[in-house]
Structure formats: structure tokens, C-alpha cells
Amino acid sequence: MTDRVDSALEAWSDERPDLDLSGAAVVNRIRRAATLIEERISALITRHEVRNPGDFDTMVALRRVGEPYELSPKQLGEQLLVTSAGLSGRLDRLEAAGMLARRPHPFDRRAVIVSLTQRGQELIDEVHAETLDLYEIALAGLESGDRQRLADLLRVMLLDLGDT
Amino acid sequence: MTDRVDSALEAWSDERPDLDLSGAAVVNRIRRAATLIEERISALITRHEVRNPGDFDTMVALRRVGEPYELSPKQLGEQLLVTSAGLSGRLDRLEAAGMLARRPHPFDRRAVIVSLTQRGQELIDEVHAETLDLYEIALAGLESGDRQRLADLLRVMLLDLGDT
DNA sequence: CACATGTCAGTGTTACTGACATAA
DNA sequence: CTTATGTCAGTATCACTGACATGT
User: Fold this and answer.
1) Across the A/B interface, how many CB contacts are shorter than 8 Å?
2) Exposure pattern of B20-52 as b/e (b: 16+ CB <10 Å)?
3) pLDDT by residue (tens digit) across A62-97?
4) Do A33 and B34 touch (CB under 8 A)?
């Protein structure tokens, strides 16, 4: 069986037979797989009242710290690599959707504490479960040993790409 | 050695030890690798007068058809999955940058023929060569057999994801 | 006074929707 | 008249920059 990357590379090698495309065969598959998975995740998220992937990531960051699911906008911005103003906008949307709450910091009156609401926690866990299901669909054709091999090969790549 | 996906999954399994994250270990690496590669490609493109990845893809579509590197906006839009108005904007930018030219269709006076200029062709080939170099860097840690294995495993995934 | 935190207003980017001019 | 092609104007989305209010 041939996938779309096979077809695309074939078209290229007709046009440029001088090039070695073995690297492209790997990297383009990675890019294509990421695109397809992201499409599905995006569709999945959209079904859950939080349209924007960035907003969703913001909730994930809060969920990941564990009880009591609280961070300052400052900390969130650093984790998410978003400017303070950009983050402010995300928080506005998420607060309006009832996914998180802002309250004043008890001692530092400049600061704010952002916390995931009950509803926000539930949504994250729900989406997360659905995401794992989606991954299982994507990996259905690979047995456990294949998965491990794939993960190991990809780790080598990531380390080469400077993923600390 | 551990990459960022290892760290992230470890944090998650602290918080949710009930979940099986072996699928996430694979898929998140694919997503992360795609992100890192796309960052580098984006940086590479930006150095070449065509800032926007979509504009670049438009040029690639023209390059790929081979001599004389011509398509109609209609055909381009279908290939690139962009609306006609959206494509029109891309063509405006690329034409202004001297990368392509529009001329009237000889018989159909509604239609237009878009062609890659000499400069556009050179730019595509240059960027393409640099992209292949970039892929080599990403794959430096994998020998030829590993690459083949990786490509094969990813093909299985893509076919499962419905990549025709 | 210098620095930190968070928000707001205005801007830039890019593609979309819907309307339109022209032609087949 | 219906359909096709391409363009234009206006809109939406989202984050950024820079300015600002407040507080340490």
C-alpha cells in the first residue's frame, strides 16, 4: 500500500531525479501524521465548548499541576510561551466559558490566581480520555513492540533536534 | 537520555497514574518532532523573501507540475484547499514579489494562467535543497535501516488515519 | 525610584464569506 | 438564463506591541 507521501515523493522524483529523498520520506510522514492527528484533535476540542487549541493548552497546564489546579498568569505565560496580553485574552474567554476563575492573590495585591473550575477539570479529563482513544485508533496497526521501536527512533530524532 | 515528551508524560502519570500513555508516547513525539521541524522550515523560508508558508506551498505546487510551471488559480485552489479569494490574495503577494506572473488565458477570457518566474523556480529549488539538508540534520542519528523502519512504521499509521 | 504584574487598546496577519464583474 | 472564473470588500481570529494602572 502507498500513502500520500509515497505519491508526492514519486511526483518529485519524476521532476527532480537527482535528489535523495529518503530523508523526506521520513520527515514528511511525520509532518503529515502530525497534521492528520491535529485535525482530529482540533475537531475533538471544538465539540467541547473550547474552540481554540491555545485556550485548551492553557487549561491543560492548569490540570497538569494537580490540586488545587492553580497558577498565576505569569507562570502560565512562561509555560505556554504567550505574552502577558495574549494570555489575558485567553483567560477572558475561558473565564466567560466557566472553565476557570480568577481571584486576587491573598498577599500580593498586584497578582492574580487562576484556577480551573470543576467544569474545567471535567472537560480536560474528558477530552484527554478521548485524545488517548484517538491515539489508539492511529496506532491500531502497530503492535506493542512496533510502538516501542517507533517511540525510540523518534526520541533519537528529537534529541538531535535539540529537544531538551 | 530523555526528551521533553518523556518529562511531560512523567508529569502526567504522576497526576493520572490510571492512564496508559504508551500511545501518547508515540503520537506526542510525532507532534513534537513536526513542530520542531516546522519551526526550522519556517525560519528557512523567512530568510528567502517569501514569509508565508502558504505562499510557499503555492509556489511548490507550480514547481511540482514541471515545465512550463503553469496552473490556473482554479487548479491551484483545488490542490491547496484554499478558497478562490484566499488564493487571489496569495497570488497578489507572490506576483508583487516577482515569484510568479499572471497572464490571460489565450482562449477563455475569464481565465488566467499563473506561472512561476525564473526567480520563483530558483527560489523553490534553493529552499528545497536547504530543506533536504535540514532533514539530514534531523535524521543524523539514524542509520539507513532505521530510516527505512521509521518510514515503514509511519506509513502504517498514515494508512490507518485514512491517508489516501 | 526601579521593578513586577496584569490588563487594555490598537495593529498585523491571513484566510474566510458573500457580492460582483466578466465571460462561456 | 445558468454556470464558471477570478477579484474585491468586509469580517473573523488570535496573538503581538506598547501604553498604562496598580502595587511591591
Assistant:
1) 203
2) ebbbbbbbbbbbbbbebbeebbeebbeeeebee
3) 999 999 999 999 999 999 999 999 999 999 999 999
4) yes
Q: Which of B 90-129 lie inside 8 A of A, CB atoms?
A: 125, 128-129
Q: With the C-alpha atoms ordered A148, A152, A153, A158, is the resulting torsion angle positive or negative? A: positive
Amino acid A12: pLDDT: 86
Q: Point out the residue among B24, B31, B156 whose CB comes nearest to the CB of A141.
A: B156
Q: Is the pLDDT of residue B102 over 90?
A: yes
| Proximity of residue A84 CB to strand C below 7 A | yes
What is the SS3 assignment for A24-57? Answer: HHHHHHHHHHHHHHHHHHHHHHHCCCCCCHHHHH
C-alpha to C-alpha distance for A43 and A40, rounded to whole angstroms: 5
Decide if B147 and A25 are in contact by the 8 Å CB cutoff: yes
- Confidence band for B125, pLDDT divided at 50, 70 and 90: very high
Q: Is the peptide bond before B53 cis (omega within 30 degrees of 0)?
A: no
Contact B20 A158 (CB under 8 A): no
Nearest nucleotide to B74 (CA to C1') is D5
Of B22, B30, B128, the CB nearest to A30: B30
pLDDT at residue number A46: 83
d(CA B89, CA B141): 41
pLDDT at B51 over 90: no
CA distance A32 to chain B (A): 8
Give residues with Cβ within 8 angstroms of A83, minimum separation 6: A77
d(CA B149, CA A157): 14
Q: Yes or no: say if B100 and B120 are a contact pair by the CB < 8 Å rule.
A: yes
